[in-house]
Amino acid sequence: MELMRSGEWTTYKKYLDRQRIMWQHDQSLSQNIGATGEDQLAIPKTTFGIADKISADFKSDAADGIFGLAFTTLAVDGVVPPLINAIKQGLLDEPLFSVFLEHRRTLTNVGGGVFTYGAVDTTNCGPVIGYQPLSSATYFQFKANRFRLGKYLNAKVVDVISDTGTSFLGGPSVVIDEIAKQAGATYDILGEAYIIDCDATPGPLGVTIGGHDYQIEHYNYIADVGDGTCVMALFPMDFGGFGPSWILGDPFIRQYCNIYDLGNLRMGFAPSLKPAP
Q: Which residues, including other chains, have CB under 8 Å from residue 186's CB and lie 6 or more apart?
């Protein structure tokens, strides 16, 4: 875990509520994304939250914080999120970012993918299959339907979100249970997971977005958790009619690069060019 020592920063402005800092700009102490040169994105005058007390869980957590990339409507106190700030300052070639995730099993301390700010990643991603308008510019939320696996099909049109921070696919419990059953998985109550044979090949899990059919291959939704145990990367969630019905997390984003077009309020999807593991 990395610690921010505010006394070493010469370019911040501390707010009275003691929860936010306005970062100005200092090349030696900038909040940069990337390593050097063209890999860097420095965003002056960015407001972010700080904590003087944290949970002990962070000591063993590889993540040092959360870099929010969605809209101002979700931001605490209505502050302008970093990427929206960058767009307003004209720092990006295009008002969007794209995400490519590697087809990796359970590994640590390895590269997991690429975030491309201001452009579509044409190195790791193929041609864009289609764009879908956002149904709500809070999360990256849009319409989808025809969730299917094997002989099971749920054709209902629902709101879904794309979320890089969700490792699994989340959906209504009734639908998730049926998909797991089609794959031959069984639910483990104690582990709260759908257990499946590590050698299983249930076929692609499909979803339709904007008239385009997308297929998530089994190697992207079956995860080896060690000791010869594998789980389907699915979890049930029921919001009771409020919020999105599905979260298309990392299994979907590994299969298809996701393009988050903030300027045009839409999502784009392109096939990953990386071969299956």
A: 180, 194, 195, 196
Q: Which residue has the higher pLDDT, 22 or 45?
A: 45
Amino acid at 247: I
Tell me the CATH number of domain 109-271, given options 2.40.70.10, 3.10.400.10, 3.40.50.620, 2.40.10.330: 2.40.70.10
**Spatial contact of 262 and 96, defined as CB atoms under 8 Å apart:** yes
Distance CA 220, CA 151 (A): 20
| 45/22 Cα distance (integer angstroms) | 6
Q: Phi/psi of residue 38, each to 5°?
A: -70, -15
Long-range Cβ pairs for the range 77-83 (8 Å, 24+): 77/20, 79/20, 79/47, 80/46, 80/47, 82/43, 82/46, 82/48, 83/43, 83/117, 83/262
Give strand pairing partners of 47: 22
Asked if 70 contacts 234 with a C-beta cutoff of 8 angstroms, the reply is no
Q: Across-strand partners of 22?
A: 13, 47
Instruction: Please give the average per-residue pLDDT across 157-167, as a whole number.
Output: 95
9-29 pLDDT per residue, tens: 666 566 545 444 444 443 333
* pTM, entire model: 0.85
Distances 141 to 134, 144, 174 between C-alpha atoms, Å: 5, 10, 21
